[in-house]
Design a protein that fits this description.
The structure is a homodimer of 348-residue chains. With 348 residues, chain A is an alpha/beta fold. The first copy, chain A, has 12 helices and 13 strands. In chain A, strands 3-2-1-4-8 form a 5-stranded mixed beta sheet, sandwiched between helices. The two termini of chain A are 23 Å apart. At the A-B interface, strand 10, helix 9 and helix 11 of A face strand 10, helix 9 and helix 11 of B.
Chain lengths: 348, 348
Amino acid sequence: MAVNGTAVRAVTEQLPVRGVGQASLLLGVDLGGSHISAALVDQAGRILQRRKAPTAVEAGPDGIIAGIVELLREVISVSGVTRRELAGIGLGIPGLIDSSRGLSIFSPNLFWHNVQVVRPIEREFNLPTFMDNDVRCATLAEAWYGAGRGVANLICLTIGTGIGSGLMIDGQLVRGATESAGEIGHMTIEKDGPRCNCGNHGCLEALAAGPAIARRAREAIEKGVETVMLAMVGGQPDRLDAAVVTQAARQGDPVAWEIIELAALYLGIGIANYINLVNPELVIIGGGVAQAGELLLAPMRRVVGQRAMKVQAATARVVPARLGEDAGVIGAAALVLERLGEAGPSAV
Amino acid sequence: MAVNGTAVRAVTEQLPVRGVGQASLLLGVDLGGSHISAALVDQAGRILQRRKAPTAVEAGPDGIIAGIVELLREVISVSGVTRRELAGIGLGIPGLIDSSRGLSIFSPNLFWHNVQVVRPIEREFNLPTFMDNDVRCATLAEAWYGAGRGVANLICLTIGTGIGSGLMIDGQLVRGATESAGEIGHMTIEKDGPRCNCGNHGCLEALAAGPAIARRAREAIEKGVETVMLAMVGGQPDRLDAAVVTQAARQGDPVAWEIIELAALYLGIGIANYINLVNPELVIIGGGVAQAGELLLAPMRRVVGQRAMKVQAATARVVPARLGEDAGVIGAAALVLERLGEAGPSAV
């Protein structure tokens, strides 16, 4: 994968071969549909300083990029870090990207099409700047500093409004031929299943992401099934979300419990299919829906054990993510090391 | 992945850094449940000499290994190649393997459990000897010398009695944490589908491999549906196989056609799921069932286009394999180069 040649050279010239010397700190940006996070991160993956602001989607690409610049300026200024201490900037961007050209090809949440993201930020700060998909950034963070430390072959799933994944093989992030690897959310699990936003039918995302969980709860209530969930949302079914269903299931509500079990079944099938193909040592489960914890993970593991081949199932532990919402911004910062050819935290 | 350290050292000491010098020829062995193939192969993937013999499964591991040794001796003797011209031996073994220990862990077709394969052959010929899974060998051959030349990210499927695959990412074969990557045959496509030999339900293999295709033809005949297939097998439905169904479909038999289309639907879903995860440039289709050619490939491509995400579908061409049954033995030979750190045919 090509990276910005000039920028890399500029930095590597001033650095020793296997370290970033004086320039040992990293800036990371996690751009989401609702918020932007920016942070100063050290090479052990610790956040030293951070700022967060709402994403001004209505301001368009220029406005959002100006917002990123402002947040980064604040982080730099508050932390008192100098340019010489900084190795570079990493950007985690949702949707389709072309990292060699620094472009966001398509980001439905931001309404972006072919937006140049890297160059304006690189120019502004005169620091090597890299980008990657937000889920891949989270995967890098969990692999280097979180639940995947020391593991060379792993999958990291984020289960929230959508379902995405990052894949690491032999210690290397897998990006794919056009940087689109990892789309487990659009794995067909039921060929005649519910229609997904992508146009396909029976995608994992349409069966097991947050909105599918909320939809099943609403449907149960509409059918008149008795459940504590209705009271939990003050009698307003449109306020139901995966968090409410999870909470109800924890309280022992059988309807909510069944909905979580069904999501776990679909997720378990998707994970079993995935580990049959890439045979990882670890499957890390993160994202909002994953906050259900063992409630979701225990039945998921059972399904993986039933559905995956013996060796693959025995090899792959299924564990919760460790870095929570920070994974995105830490991973974006870590991207600087990854793209400059650092081998990860062990090289520090 | 660890390789036999001593053997590698022995060879690399006598070789220039990026070539195998005088020792430029390779021996490959493709061990199958019915036949063993052995061949002398050059670094352009051409078979210079070959021998084939039935697999004496009843003779047990020692008998089969003795058979491999005999075939290799014949190939060496007939071709007049000297030991100094040989870089090493590669073995393609079906089932589960542990290449670092030279073991066949489990091979259902051979009735093998924990059989030491590499050491006796290495000792016999005093040549560096390597092993890999047979499907991965075929993938290496197609990637380096067949349909995948010049492509860094590809999947190679073999569709026959079973369905297996090999995966290459950024020019490297993916083996997985325990050398079990690539098991697309046991991807759950229908969670309540027919029972598979592996114990799971609705595996791709149980829905679309040769036996599933033959079974559907038999079921149609048992139901009394009119089809030319019955006459083609002389009125004996137990003689039906995927080749007969393919031939009947080519002749325009609508029952056979529908059966092939259904297999293509399941295979297309499996491939779409796979390319969503690893985003390859190429999907190579080989194996006995794939001899149906465009009859199978055309509807399969249509399904991939419908089911995979846009970018992944647009990036991955679906093409037939080029090396046919030779892929296994050529790939086993190529394994010697791969394991000695040669980069592939471009390095020759």
